[in-house]
Amino acid sequence: MNIKIIAIGKTDxxxxxxxxxxxxxxxxxxxxxxxxxxxxxxxxxNLSEAQQKDKEGDLILKKLQxxxxxxxxxxxxxxxxxxxxxxxxxxxxxxxxxxxxxVIGGPYGFSDAIYQKAQGKVSLSQMTxxxxxxRLFITEQIYRAFTILRNEPYHHQ
Length: 157
Known about the structure:
The chain is α/β, with parallel strands linked by helices. It has helices at about 15-25, 50-60, 80-95, 110-115, 130-150; strands at about 1-10, 30-40, 70-80, 100-105, 120-125.
């Protein structure tokens, strides 16, 4: 199985980017992994929230293959602890999914088209985090999940 993260907008913080890259590299030891960054929408100040979400949604949909399973990182999604998340990934792998795609939306969330196409929603927390922090948290949790599945000493309970 391949895992891909699609996110809107670049990571401004060099420290966050360095950590995201570290975990992305580590994930690569277990599965093919890709972080696909969609540039911020130009002239977004001239758009309504709905228009911005629609434009971002169109760009996200263009990045998907027909067989991709798209899961949104959404505050209203299912919550997991780390062991449960590792089980979730294992079930996805067992289902024979070619590519699992986690999507991090823009500042206003997702368009209706994205919600309709999504095959699941995962929440990292009930708290609100910057989209840049979410990238770090999901890459670290994917890495942690694989170490749990391989019974490696990274995760402690």
